[in-house]
Specification:
Layout: E1 2-6, H1 16-30, E2 34-40, E3 51-54, E4 56-59, E5 62-68, H2 73-82, E6 86-89, H3 94-105, E7 110-113, H4 118-121, H5 131-142, E8 148-150, H6 153-161, E9 167-169, H7 186-192, E10 201-205, H8 214-227, E11 232-236, H9 242-249, H10 261-270, E12 273-275, H11 285-292, E13 297-301, H12 305-308, E14 315-319, H13 324-336, H14 338-353, H15 357-379
Parallel strand pairs: 1-2, 1-6, 2-3, 6-7, 7-8, 8-9, 10-11, 10-12, 12-13, 13-14
Antiparallel strand pairs: 4-5
């Protein structure tokens, strides 16, 4: 099977979309499929020889994001030369739109995946007035693909109310062999940051951006440290809102930037509690990685996170309309109760063990093959 994967974000960018697509490419390649990657050009040449890159510029308000710039003639030409059985479009900006139109014109099988609630992001960037326009465009875009793969039932329900069609549940997975509680690097990371064995460390891992509800999280951590000064904190990640976030809590929470691979897994293991305040997640990859690492999660019941974390079983949740004090109290409860902390963490780990990338991507692959089979049957003349 030949698959073209189109995305406005890919490695070396670090986010849930790039991680998911990276695992998709890995598993499909291991199954013997041929993959073509189409994504923006970054400052360094692509490490994967299968990549076709488009000229791009950094978004002025969000330097980590790149906007691909037309014309995309070489992209269309590369697709035709590769002759894919399926085109999978993961993002809906200039590059995704161009490939969608090309695929429809050429009558190729084209599917999409919904990763980002851009309509919900609008309120975080003072363009809430544009939410209905963004939602209408996203609906128009995805209704023109054969299937739209969505990572949670919660998101599917939200999109159905918006008029989306032909959606398929496509949960994300985790590498439980890497993200696990017994990693040997735990002590080294804790020693590096001066954390004693008997201290409870609360951590956040992820992109530091407005849409991650960082302002709310800062309030939560400020309340928690005032009430439990013996608790320790750690922030792993980076992003456009880092400066303001660090200015507020950097005096009690070390910021270590992005970490990758084995080092990232060691940082998860160095924590005792995972704090997460985003309300815009379609899934929440970092939450599942934390759970695989044996961490109880304190978060807001919203989006895909509400589906991953079971309050009272694998973590503690608050409602989306509750104030920061409510989530701070959940953190304090976990700091104070070691037995609860360990019980929830063990349950979280068991849940994560069942969420393998291989099973997730094999399901996606079966959907691709079914679409190809339908196309072949449609082309066979009746006898």
């Amino acid at each position: 099977m030949r698959v073209s994967v189109v995305s406005e974000t890919y490695f070396p960018q670090v986010n849930g979309v790039s991680r998911t697509l990276g695992e998709m490419v890995r598993v499909l390649t291991e199954r013997g499929d041929q993959i073509q990657l189409i994504h923006p050009h970054y400052e360094t040449p692509p490490s994967d020889p299968r990549s076709v890159t488009a000229r791009s510029i950094a978004m002025p308000f969000y330097r980590e994001l790149r906007l691909p710039l037309p014309p995309f003639r070489h992209v269309r030409r590369a697709i035709e030369e590769f002759d894919p059985d399926v085109i999978h479009i993961a993002t809906e900006a200039t590059l995704g739109l161009t490939v969608l139109r090309h695929a429809l014109k050429r009558k190729r099988i084209v599917v999409s995946s919904f990763h980002t609630n851009f309509d919900k992001y609008s309120r975080h960037y003072q363009v809430g007035w544009a939410r209905s326009i963004i939602a209408a465009y996203l609906r128009w875009f995805h209704r023109r693909t054969s299937l739209t793969f969505v990572p949670s039932d919660v998101t599917i329900n939200e999109l159905e109310k918006m008029g989306f069609e032909r959606m398929v549940l496509w949960k994300h997975g985790v590498d439980a062999s890497m993200f696990r509680p017994d990693r040997p690097g735990r002590q080294a990371v804790r020693a590096r940051h001066g954390f004693r064995d008997d201290e409870v460390v609360i951590g956040y891992v992820g992109r530091i951006a407005r849409e991650k509800n960082i302002k709310y999280l800062a309030q939560v951590l400020e309340i928690a440290t005032k009430k439990r000064p013996q608790a320790r904190f750690l922030v792993v990640g980076d992003g456009p809102a880092r400066a303001g976030f660090e200015a507020r809590i950097g005096h009690f929470a070390p910021f270590v930037g992005y970490k990758h691979g084995e080092e990232l897994a060691d940082y998860y293991t160095a924590l005792d509690i995972f704090a997460f305040a985003s309300t815009t997640e379609t899934f929440g990859n970092v939450v599942l990685e934390a759970m695989a690492s044996g961490l109880p999660v304190a978060a807001i019941r919203a989006g895909g996170v509400a589906e991953i974390v079971r309050s009272g079983s694998t973590g503690l949740l608050v409602e989306a309309d509750e104030p920061p004090e409510a989530l701070a109290e959940r953190l304090i409860q976990l700091v104070d109760d070691e037995a609860l902390r360990k019980s929830l963490g063990a349950s979280a780990h068991r849940y994560a063990l069942e969420q393998s990338w291989e099973a997730v991507m094999d399901g996606l692959r079966e959907r691709f093959q079914a679409l190809i089979g339908e196309r072949v049957r449609d082309r066979v003349p009746a006898t």
